[in-house]
Amino acid sequence: MPVVLAPMAGITNTAYRRLCREYGNGLFVSEMVTSRALVERTEESMRLIGHHESEDYRSVQLYGVDPATIGKAVEMLVQEDRADHIDLNFGCPVAKVTRKGGGAALPWKAELFESIVKAAVKAAGDVPVTVKMRKGIDQDHLTFLDAGKAARDAGVSAVALHGRTAEDFYSGKADWDAIAELRESLPDVQVLGNGDIWSAADAVAMMEKTGVDGIVVGRGCLGRPWLFQDLELAIADYLNGKKADSFQEVMPTLGEVATAFYRHAELLTEFFEDQSRACRDIRKHVAWYFKGYPVGGEFRANLSRVESLQQAADLLATLPQDAPYPGEEAEGPRGRLGSLKRCTVPEGWLDSRELTSDHRAQLEFAELSVSGG
Fold this sequence. Notes:
8-stranded parallel beta barrel, 2 domains, two-stranded antiparallel ribbon, alpha/beta
């Protein structure tokens, strides 16, 4: 599948995946769940791996730091028929994860990385396993080429690379040259590119520049579920040799944005089985949906305070439904940005690519949360 929705904590739940699927096709991956929580069958982890009956291809992203636990989690997903695809997270840059040696910090320990991927692939059997990672910890500690080759040798179906290091966090521009380098070094496995895809034109540009088999989009689809229609059509045109200028992007009116927002709230209500919780959850989406549209601060504030679907519907109905798409003001970066952040790792972690007994002990505490960024 050339279009993949990146797992995002608190975003890519069943409700949002269903909404995106209503606009276009793709591989829609669940929020990240930790392998230990899944093996222990915590209530939250079981909720995170749930899929609606309309999701005919169920994709789950796992995070873990122990090969045995990862293997048990994958075995559970496969034996209980809970997933058709499993993605392994080695790209999370947040400090609460990397300071224990997890996420984007883990591939630095080459043998551990290889063992985890091998355990997952073995336990998965015929179910495809993929890996999502970053370039490395920082520019002095890059891991993507070694990790990509190890993952390929372990038998993964695809490797996805976000063109930033953990230290880069979400700052600056994604390094598409690194993605191209990985693609060239792995001619015998699918490679996907991730980073700075804000539009269908960006997706095509990445594929042209890097030669990847597909793209992974995260922040670019926040408040823009219709982006998946754009991506599906534009990439299909590209793969069929059509000119990029033959593609017409979706440019929704304000009324169409309001309809999508309300539909999202409806699906969240079904997902949480709690209307008030759904209204609280969708508050973080308000700024993304209405970015660039002339709705005013008071409207945004009021929409963020609604407590029921009816209140949301009444407020959305006050908007000028035929207000046109505002163009560039509604486009471009959204979500987390910020500046460089020193990647916090365990003391002595960077001294060697081998895993010491002290670091192994620290990893025991790296899976305490259920999900992460």
